[in-house]
Amino acid sequence: MVCGINSGKGAVVEVMQLSPEQWKRVLSTVDNQEDAPDSSHLEARSDLKNVSYVLALEGSPEPNPKLTFFERLLDDVVQTMQPSPAITHIELCMSPNASHGDMHFATYFGSRAAWGRDVGGQREFYLGDNASKWRAVPIVCHDASHRLRSECENHIDTPYSLAKYICALPPVRALAGFIPDGAKQSAHCAILTARCLRGALPDLNVCHPSHWFGPSTLFLELDAETNRSIFRQRLVDADPQVRALVEDEDETRAMHTLLHDSDVLIQALSEESCILALHRLTMRSLEQGLDDVAKRISQKQLATALLRYSVARNSPLVGR
């Protein structure tokens, strides 16, 4: 290495000899500085620790022939007795977390509250006949993912109650605040979801007791424009770069894969790419000024990406 020093009277040249090992370290440092991508935006935008989701299953006007008599009866009652949109099931979906494989927590007709791994037929339930009927609503609060996951642990094995649907109907729901609502008290899907949200996220300010809600009324409460505006602003405050809704190539490719491609290609995506795509779809679903049709489409896309991430990505059935 040659170093030049200007002494004022002329240039003094000093030759400094580097060993092969020193040259290797110097060149390695230069290469890393030139080639390393700027990942600061990825770290900020892919952080979903403040986000969790509620998944809502839209009712179908055509009865599902695979349902039992009692399941069809429940489906009809829930659709008929609720406001539009008719939501027949609602549950919690945690944000992706590499240290926890389970993202779903719910109770179902004839079973007790459990994480998704403890409920059989995940793929069929989420990605079978119901695949196009799911909508996702983001819930954005400080450390929402950890707080909600911890709260759900307190409600494992909560028994299912069909009879408590009557509590969500007027005028009976006026008495909802007098019904015991502690952990392990029997519940249908909306009561359990509201109970976990109220226990984990008091700053969410759910305005009614858990028993007041049916699936549709809880969905409408969480999807209210006031909440959507607050949630969006919290995401923007956490990462000002999301103000510019310009999707880069990695986001676009990962979103397309999660929404349309095979399990094999989903499994080939990096964890960072998946989370970045889910973050962008979350922002899309909270966009201001969406009409009902555009909002429904964005919520369905978000739900599809979440479900294909949680089910298809972790599926042992490679090749689908």
Fold and architecture overview:
This protein is α+β, with helices and mostly antiparallel strands and 320 residues long. The chain has one domain. 43% of the residues lie in helices and 12% in strands. The protein is built from twelve helices and seven strands. The chain has helices spanning 20-35, 40-45, 69-80, 122-127, 144-153, 189-200, 215-222, 225-238, 249-260, 263-268, 271-285, 292-312; strands spanning 2-6, 11-15, 51-58, 87-94, 104-106, 114-115, 134-140. It has a five-stranded antiparallel sheet. A two-stranded antiparallel sheet has the order 1-2. Strand 5 (104-106) and strand 6 (114-115) form a beta hairpin. Helix 5 (144-153) crosses helix 6 (189-200), helix 9 packs across helix 11 and helix 11 runs antiparallel to helix 12. The radius of gyration is 25 Å and the shape is globular. It starts with a strand and ends in an 8-residue tail after the last helix. The model is unreliable at 29-46 (pLDDT under 50).
